[in-house]
Write a structure and sequence with these properties.
Order of helices and strands: HHHEEEEEEEH
Structural class: alpha+beta
Largest sheet: 4 strands, antiparallel
Strand content: 25-35%
Number of helices: 4
CATH topology: Immunoglobulin-like
Oligomer: single chain
Helix content: 10-25%
Number of strands: 7
Number of domains: 1
Strand order of the largest sheet: 1-2-7-6
CATH architecture: Sandwich
Amino acid sequence: MSNFPTLFPYTTVFDEIFGEAVERTLKSDTTGYPRYNVWEDDDGNRLFVSLAVTGIPREKIEVYLNVIEANVDKDTRKYQVKNYPIKSFKRVFGFDRKYEVQNVIHENGELIVELVRKTPKKRQIPILPGDALDEAA
């Protein structure tokens, strides 16, 4: 990630969570819509992404593993003043595989995606005798 150390000196946690996908997301994002925030809880096991989705109904929003998408019908209203857009979008996030989506909440014009750090499952691997490889062949 060539530009992050000079642009953002405090991105160690951010880089660990998002990896190189952040650079791809920033390069591919030309509109900046919708605006979003990312924060981590105090113990570092949960990550939250909130998107400003004012005016977009919950039924029009779909959340997949790393993609948040909304398909909004064309707005035919005749505005006197239109200060914020209500439009379709597709926002791609490159989350580290250590995280999985736990909950998605749509409330008061905000979509909050909660990700939880996966805990590795401990499994015992059997130790085979030395001639086991010969038998498999």
